[in-house]
Write a structure and sequence with these properties.
With 254 residues, the chain is of the alpha/beta class. The chain contains ten helices and ten strands. It has a single domain, classed as Alpha/Beta hydrolase fold, catalytic domain (Rossmann fold, 3-Layer(aba) Sandwich). Helices cover 33% and strands 19% of the residues. The chain has a six-stranded parallel beta sheet, with helices on both faces. Strands 3-8-7-6 form a four-stranded antiparallel beta sheet. It holds the Pfam family Abhydrolase_6. This is AB hydrolase-1 domain-containing protein.
Length: 254
């Protein structure tokens, strides 16, 4: 099985549907890769708001594993690709599932590489992104009601700053608009620097949602092996999918 191309697992960012990966996924499939696009448990339509209360990255991990583990248990290797908030559940989903960790348990298959796009790294286990016990602030483009965050339209040009107006509108219309507040307040005890496989950070140099200087810090905190710099906005898998295909294929071949 190890001679087969690894399976690519695409983990979306906050408020993003799995379909946000469609163009990238199709590009990877043309290169002969099997691509999985599990949804997040923490976001959904407005009608789902009450069911989302209290959901965290751990709920996302359960969904990721439900899609990925059957392939690992069948001896396949995987590359996990994550965007923005998705870097948290992606990191947690890696724990115990790398090729080396599974081999130590007598299991075949495993995760061989991680690719993070404009994602986050926690500096201290069990602490916030700032390394303390403080909850993250409510963003200016969020409205909090009954433990649910409602995404507001001022986020559109921040998420998709390098798309034209038509592209921004299309990407925005494809977003979920609600996500649990609790998903942003989970302080992980397993962090990116604990991951001992090939790690690539894709730094978005024109990002208006996550400042590039913060991304530089996250890449260092997470002890990434490689940093690829794209002159893109927050979502290069939409604005320049060919370049992101190159990054993912490079990680898959490493």
């Amino acid at each position: 099985m190890s001679s087969m191309k690894p399976v690519i697992v695409l983990i979306p960012g906050a408020f993003h549907r799995p379909s946000s990966w469609n163009v990238l996924a199709e590009g990877l499939r043309k290169h002969g890769y099997t691509v999985l696009t599990p949804p997040l448990a923490v976001c959904g339509a407005a009608t789902d708001a009450k069911q989302l209360i209290g959901t965290t990255a751990l709920d996302d991990v359960r969904i990721i594993h439900s899609h990925m583990l059957p392939f690992l248990d069948n001896g396949r290797e995987c590359v996990v690709v994550c965007h923005s908030y998705g870097s948290l559940p992606a990191t947690l989903a890696v724990e115990g599932q790398t090729v080396k960790e599974r081999a130590a348990k007598g299991l075949s298959g495993g995760i061989k590489a991680l690719v993070t796009i404009a994602g986050f790294s926690y500096p201290i286990r069990g602490k916030s992104i700032m390394g303390d016990d403080s909850e993250p602030p409510i963003m200016p483009y969020h409205v909090l009601e009954e433990e649910i965050l409602y995404l507001q339209e001022p986020a559109k040009p921040l998420f998709y700053s390098d798309l034209d107006q038509e592209g921004q509108d299309a990407a925005w219309d494809n977003l979920f608009k609600v996500q649990s507040r609790a998903s942003f307040c989970h302080f992980p005890h397993y962090i990116t620097s604990d991951i001992l496989i090939n790690k690539t950070y894709t730094l978005c140099g024109e990002d208006k949602a996550v400042d590039p200087s913060h991304q530089e810090a996250f890449a260092q905190i997470g002890q990434y092996d490689k940093v690829v710099r794209l002159q893109s906005g927050h979502s290069p898998f939409i604005s320049m999918p060919e370049r992101v295909v190159e990054v993912v294929v490079g990680a898959a071949q490493s």
